[in-house]
Design brief:
The protein contains five helices and twelve strands. With 285 residues, the protein is of the alpha+beta class. GO terms for molecular function: peptidyl-prolyl cis-trans isomerase activity. PPIases accelerate the folding of proteins. It catalyzes the cis-trans isomerization of proline imidic peptide bonds in oligopeptides.
Length: 285
């Protein structure tokens, strides 16, 4: 029997996935509009390989059913978790001077890493340093891409644009536009999808706290530059490439960011903390 807490988590996860699917649809409309503008004005519209954490595809009918279920049987815990709260003080510092990258590439970079070596992806953020141990052996294309982008300064001065605090617990970064629809212009293949075990009856696996994984559009092999950092065990579909692990010090930084809440009061929005990646590097140890 499904408990109230399990149902709450399921509804929160489905809401998260529906929002992502709507963002995919908005991006497609935007892409069509930009193509028309480009044809008329004869200008180049810079495209990006959009990537964000998405999941199951919900039809409008299923969305209505879920919304009706939420309206008909709101639990005390669900009501409390979605009630707007006062904005917490910003725990982060002022961002370093600089502008986010607008660079784009047509194709995935050629393999240039040592798959047997250890690499560290270090995010120097306004909220503190977050070192990430990369798994080059199991996710070589992903690690190679991140090293390429970091070496080009692609992540520098970009905001972490999304914080989810209800049902799943992630901070999403890697989009220089800060809107959730940007990327490097190319996509990379999914990797390492079986490392977290077999999916349960709900079609999810647990992404443990400290996991760093690729975001995507909900379709295979649509990862670009966006990624999410898990600060608390989170149930998600096994569709997002796990490619790194955050240490205890980095998790403290994430916990501080999450503690400041997000902008909507609904559990999914821009972080209240001013999370900017001043500098991102990938180093070989």
């Amino acid at each position: 029997m499904v408990t109230k807490d399990q149902r709450r988590r399921q509804l929160a996860r489905e809401k998260f996935e529906r929002q992502q699917q709507r963002r995919v649809q908005m991006r497609r409309k935007s892409r069509t509009r930009n193509s028309v503008i480009a044809a008329v004005l004869a200008v180049v519209v810079i495209g990006g390989g959009t990537a964000w954490a998405a999941g199951a595809f919900d039809s409008s009918d299923s969305k209505k059913k879920d919304d009706a279920a939420n309206a008909a049987t709101p639990s005390a815990s669900a009501s409390a978790s979605t009630s707007p709260t006062a904005k917490a003080p910003d725990p982060c510092n002022k961002a370093a001077a600089g502008k986010p990258s607008t660079a784009q590439w047509k194709t995935e970079p050629k393999m240039a890493i040592d798959k047997s070596a250890k690499y560290t992806f270090t995010l120097q953020t306004t909220c503190g340093s977050i070192p990430i141990a990369l798994d080059a052996a199991k996710a070589p294309d992903t690690v190679n891409s991140f090293k390429f982008l970091a070496d080009k300064g692609f992540f520098d001065h970009s905001k972490c644009h999304r914080l989810v605090t209800n049902g799943i617990y992630v901070l999403q970064c890697g989009d220089p536009t800060g809107q959730g629809n940007g990327g490097p212009g190319y996509t990379i293949p999914d990797e390492n999808l079986t490392s977290l075990g077999k999916a349960d009856a709900q079609g999810t696996v647990t992404y443990p706290a400290g996991t760093v994984a690729m975001a995507n559009t909900g379709q295979p092999h649509t990862g670009g530059s966006q990624f999410f950092l898990v600060y608390k065990d989170s149930p998600l579909a096994p569709s997002y490439t796990p490619f790194g692990t955050i240490d205890a010090a980095g998790l403290k930084v994430l916990t501080k960011i999450a503690g400041a809440g997000e902008s909507t009061g609904q559990g999914d929005g821009a972080p209240n903390a001013t999370v900017v990646i001043d500098k991102a590097t990938v180093s070989k140890s």
